[in-house]
Amino acid sequence: MLRAEILKLKRSATWIIALILPLLAVTTGTINLANNLDTLDAGWASFTSQVTLFYGLLFFSIGIGLIASTAWRMEHRGTNWNLLLTTTRKPVKLVIAKALVIMIPVAFMQLVLVAGTLISGTLVLGLDGAIPWQFALVGAISVLAALPLIAIQSLLSMLLKSFAAPVAICLLGCVVGVATVTSEALRPLSFIWPQAINTRALNLGSTALAGSGGLTAQDALPLIGTALGFALVIVVLTVTTIRTVKLR
Amino acid sequence: MTSVITTRGLTKQFKTHTAVDSLNLDVPQGHVYGFLGPNGSGKSTTMKMILGLTQPTSGDIKVLGEPLTRASRTKLLPSIGSMIEAPPGYGHLTGRENMRIVQDMLDLSTPQIDHALATVRLTEQQHKLVRNYSLGMKQRLGIAMALARDPALLILDEPTNGLDPAGIEEIRMLLVDLAGRGITVMVSSHLLDEIDKMASVLGILSSGKMIFQGSRDQLFEQSVPDLIIETSDPHAALAQGLTATRVPEGIRMSGIDKDQTAKVIYQLAVAGVPIYEVRRVAQSLEDVFMDLTGRGGLL
Is the ipTM of this complex over 0.95? Predict the structure, then answer.
């Protein structure tokens, strides 16, 4: 079942989304740093923080919304739902396979972000100091932290035939997410709001966002734990939805 | 004759209308069952309920000897090949890649895939993107996807839609051949001609109700063809007070059964009307169908 889902990624637009969004983040981060060298003078730390700031608040989550919508769009075409439902033996397998398959371009997106940042910092900006390899760890942690949003967007894109509607809902979630990480009063919410979990994960060790936490097990593990638990709940919800809505 | 599909009182109600109304379906094993009815008569809805794609409002379904439930559906799925409403397929993938998806979902072997593609004659086009396929090729790919699992039961909804006459003939021969190998085929159509030539059992649906189910011969028995009495003196025949119309060769009478026919012949003979020949009009399936549906019309 997973093999079938991976095959469907072939020639799909998910890869373009996964390539463009992180490159956009690296480009804006590079321009921002080059223009503000006086204030952003902490070298690599400043640069990675600039790249992950907007990427973590917006681009990453929107990218997940777009990739999930693209992955489900092909199932809404013609009578493909009939094919899917008459060849799927266990709905739970389908839900997990879809989530994993959305995770692949999401992971690729992170790879582009990390590689792009390291390349731009070395070749374009010519930053001093050792290359911050721990930035790759931030990229990896945020793939796991993205699981709740992946599961939610997968559920929404499965239910809604429209390509844009789930993405719009995701964008609204980003707005709420920004509020939870920037407002002191709402901050506790940022540990359970899917878009905010993404922001927190990407800004581990960042200097740009207040209260973002360090790149330590103490700060990263609770985030990953919550994300995994949350994703599991959504998977169960999605399986129930298939049973009641799609096989009604 | 064992039934592969049995439904009792199968009903599907939507908010505003009843799509399928207390259907008692019996699809015998190893036959091509022609499921006939005008567009919107409830054929697709019935097939979807048999496949567990939509829940009936009431009634029971038995498939391959098992009552259809959520648990049995999972077990039955690999034995039932289906294509409902229109052929499925991922346009951004090739025909072969689409087949590989089915292969992976149902744990099929590569020879099964090759064989299914060869059966529908898509082997040469298997590496083309499906979005570039003609409607006929998409239709054949859909059938290949249903066939690859070597099903015991094949449920096809309007499989000849959009095919040219040669393509229709090909599908017809394929389905008859499959039935010959013991596979039960349930095939729907709104076109009489297509069904007439392949189905050995017919089910006719009109506005969600089954108006006939049985063999082709039984269907013809349902409606008595007109009687033609050939005579050189139709005036004398009509003067006997018969309800008949004049035709070039004599007179024509409707709705006359065997006993009545004998009486009419006796009456005319006694009256001295010369009778050259008495025969029934050759009747097409279409005539019978029109008769049954009260000229409500098919198409």
Answer: no
Q: How many CB atoms lie within 10 A of CB A128?
A: 7
Distance CA B102, CA B160 (A): 22
In contact, B11 and B57? CB cutoff 8 Å: yes
Structure tokens at A27: 């480009």
Non-local (6+) Cβ contacts of A126 within 8 A are none
Q: A205 to chain B nearest CA, in Å?
A: 41
Indicate which of B76, B92, B155 best probes the interface with A, i.e. most A CBs within 10 Å of its own CB: B92
3-state secondary structure (DSSP) of residue A40: coil
pLDDT in tens, B242-295: 888 888 888 999 888 888 899 999 999 998 899 999 998 877 767 777 777 664
- Mutation to test the A interface, candidates B63, B99, B105, most A Cβ within 10 Å: B105
Q: Residue B236 belongs to what H/E stretch?
A: helix B234-238
Q: Are B79 and B151 in contact (CB under 8 A)?
A: yes
DSSP B6-24: EEEEEEEE-SS-EEEEEE-
Rounded to two decimals, what is the model's pTM?
0.85
Closest Cα partner for A82 from B84, B95, B185, B150? Answer: B84
Find the CB nearest A1 among B84, B92, B104. Answer: B104
CA distances B66 to A248, B2, B168, Å, are: 20, 13, 33
At A13, phi and psi to the nearest 5?
A: -75, -10
Q: Is A244 on the interface with B (CB under 8 A)?
A: no
Contacts of A85 (CB under 8 A, 6+ apart): A246, A247, B53
The full DSSP string for B105-157 is HHT--HHHHHHHHHHTT-GGGTTSBGGGS-HHHHHHHHHHHHHTT--SEEEEE
| Token pair in block for residue B228 | 């033609």
